[in-house]
Design brief:
This protein is of the alpha+beta class. The protein folds into two domains: about 60 residues, 3-Layer(aba) Sandwich (Glutaredoxin); about 60 residues, no CATH class. It has five helices and four strands; from the N terminus they run βαβββαααα. It has a four-stranded mixed beta sheet, covered by helices on one side.
């Protein structure tokens, strides 16, 4: 299903654009929203969805890449959990506790490390990539 991604020209949602490219999801770009506007994905049917995480979840669900959103509902929920937890990792006062939790969680799930790092890096960019590397 072809969709149009609308966003503010001064803040393109790189996580959405990158995830769509990796997932094989075709998007038309519309950088015409006002500065500070929330990215919106418009469909030919007239439906639309708002927000970076919501659009990322949509892309993961319709990806042509096998297991992009996990292999079952539990794995998909783990992806959702990390998308929700990522902002906490970036906040200064919570950073140490978040890193400790992340370290403990991933220590018992080594197969998740690459997936979590990829998703968080897509969402929050190079700053998080460096922080995850330091764990």
């Amino acid at each position: 299903m072809e969709a149009k991604l609308a966003f503010a020209q001064d803040s393109p949602p790189l996580s959405i654009i990158s995830a769509a490219k990796i997932a094989g999801v075709s998007l038309t770009m519309d950088p015409g929203l006002a500065s500070g506007a929330v990215p919106t994905l418009h469909f030919n049917s007239g439906d639309f969805i708002h927000g970076i995480n919501t659009i990322l979840r949509y892309i993961a669900r319709v990806a042509s890449v096998s297991s992009f959103y996990g292999q079952d509902a539990i794995q998909a929920s783990h992806v959702d959990q990390w998308l929700e937890y990522a902002p906490v990792i970036l906040s200064g006062s919570e950073f140490e506790a978040a890193c400790s939790f992340l370290d403990g969680y991933l220590a018992s799930r080594p197969f998740w490390l690459a997936i979590v790092c990829q998703l968080l890096t897509l969402q929050y960019g190079r700053i998080l990539q460096v922080n995850v590397f330091l764990l």
